[in-house]
Write a structure and sequence with these properties.
Mean pLDDT: 86
Number of helices: 3
Number of domains: 1
Shape: elongated
Largest sheet: none
Strand content: under 5%
Distance between the termini: 93 Å
Length: 85
């Protein structure tokens, strides 16, 4: 069982580490804050290729529709097989 002196020592050591940890986090925050303007610009901006991507998507839809239409019109219809059923 841990005695009172040991408990107090652990507590005081923890308190003594606080200033060092605060300085460490201040330094980390300062480094992160340097990058904030760049990160905000990246997040807030539009992707440079977004317009081109949207154009490609619309072209893809058009081509898919043409392919479907071509398949439908190129299927031979056997009238005798349909009427015999």
């Amino acid at each position: 069982m841990i005695n009172i002196v040991t408990k107090a020592t652990v507590f005081l050591n923890a308190l003594n580490r606080i200033p060092k940890l605060m300085e460490q986090y201040r330094t980390e925050n300062a480094n992160i804050e340097k990058d904030l303007p760049t990160l905000r610009e990246v997040v807030g901006g539009t992707w440079k290729k977004e317009e081109e991507l949207n154009l490609f998507k619309s072209e893809m839809v058009t081509l898919e529709q043409k392919i479907i239409l071509h398949r439908i019109t190129s299927i031979p219809i056997n009238i005798r097989a349909v009427s015999a059923s």
